[in-house]
């Protein structure tokens, strides 16, 4: 098994709470926003935003009307 660099765990511990917060805010917005005010499927945006932070950023930039 490959050994991790010393800073990898620290970066992940900083990144994970940020991702969870951004995803939670995104899901909250998707849940409260009417379907006609979202470009595309709400279900798809939830999936994309849960997978990575860039998906959530894409929703905020392009997924809202």
Global Rg: 15 Å
Measured as a percent range, the helix fraction is over 70%
Major sheet: none
E-strand count: 0
Give the rounded overall mean pLDDT: 93
Count of helical segments? 3
Net shape: elongated
Q: Which secondary-structure class do the elements indicate?
A: mainly alpha
Low-pLDDT regions: none
N-to-C order of helices and strands: HHH
> In angstroms, what separates the terminal alpha carbons?
47 Å
Per DSSP, what share of the residues sits in E-state strands of 2 or more residues?
under 5%
Could you describe the 3D structure shown?
With 65 residues, the chain is an all-alpha fold. The protein has a domain at 20-63. 74% of the residues lie in helices and 0% in strands. The chain contains 3 helices and no strands. The longest helix is centred in the first third of the chain and has 27 residues, at 6-32. The protein is elongated. The termini are far apart.
């Amino acid at each position: 098994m490959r050994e991790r660099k010393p800073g990898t765990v620290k970066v992940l511990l900083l990144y994970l709470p940020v991702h969870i917060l951004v995803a939670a805010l995104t899901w909250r917005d998707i849940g409260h926003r009417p379907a006609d005010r979202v470009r595309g499927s709400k279900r798809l945006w939830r999936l994309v935003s849960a997978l990575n932070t860039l998906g959530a950023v894409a929703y905020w930039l392009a997924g809202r009307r």
